[in-house]
Specification:
The protein is an alpha+beta fold. Helices cover about 30% and strands about 15% of the residues. The protein has a six-stranded antiparallel β-sheet with strand order 10-9-8-7-12-11. It has a two-stranded antiparallel sheet with strand order 1-2. Helix 11 (about 375-385) packs antiparallel against helix 12 (about 395-405).
Length: about 400
Amino acid sequence: TIEIREVIPPNSGRDAAPVFVKRGRLPKNVDPLKQPGVETDRTVLNVFGPMGHGGRYILDSLKTGSQPLEFYHDSDLTLGTALNVWGRKFVLCDADDFTKEYYKTKYAITEFTPITSNSTGGGRVEKQYPPYNGFGSEEDSLCSCMGLLPKPPKRDFIKFMECDRRGLDSNVLRFLARMDTEKPIDKDRRFIISYFLSDDTLLVFEPPVRNSGIIGGKFLERGRVKKPDQIPYSTELSEYYLASDLFVGASVNFNRHKFILVDADEYAFRYMEDHPAAFPMCNLQCILEKIRRKLSENMDDVRSFFARSDTSSSGVASYDQFRSLIKQVDGTLTDQEIMSVARYFSNQPQQAGMDLQKLQAIAQEQLRKRNYESFNNLFESLQHQDRNKAGFISPEALRTVFLSH
């Protein structure tokens, strides 16, 4: 007889039922299921007489019509043998010491080389989820397939807190866009695309223009926008537009409306330049490396171009001249990359200092947000620090006064 038990590792998630096949004789060949009466323990033979009433019958004790089955014996069990266990293939890989000693004594078998398994270990099968059915959001439908008790999808709360509006830092990237169309009516329309970094949502607004015949206002409600050319009902989550997909010169498709980004505000430029890892179009080192590889052969042409453009020998070139030169050197660079290089090497005049009244208003607004209203006491403490009555105190003294309050 043969009994098969399954070795269940701890914390495997399987039921504690180790008996795979109960103890009994194991047939070598498994035949398909036969009709009732083909195989039976009692075979009746008609000896003589008519069929039915009046006939004489005896039991076939020799079982002349039965087909004998072949069963596995101990001589059939050796390392490497493939057993047919009711249609499933089992390979004998190793044996214990008692079994080895038994086969060595009875069958003179001395070689017991273990057989390594070709399995990758674990046999983990990737879970397949059903396709999206169109009800609710894709994330919400996916969460309903992960357990018996549906749970709402989790939001990235840390990202929401870090990228939410804080004072003058809005964390909103605004771009100026136009429609990518040849229609005369829509060709001159301008749109403001706002990208909210806190939840990766987009808002499209069209500024009203008088006597244009088009009512301006909100063009696209705030929300996440899917990228085009995706299967609508698929088992995989759809891809949405991210902040890295928006840059000056990019072509986007919002719900079958094509836009071309032509400009951005100062905050968007500064934010992208401060985070070059998330915005490769503003990574100055990579852009300069591209230009350097192209200029290694045409350095003399670049010098002659600037000499022809700078007729007054001032050492300054306009942005249009610089853009035309970069396009001649490397036509694959986008407008965002060219603008990033131009902004870095631009000759910007020194800006005048901030208005004191504006600075005072900003400081008071920030203090009021922290529920601070004792401005008279703060003014007296600042006067106490100004011992020479000069109207100025050091930054260290100012910091000490604010921390004390």
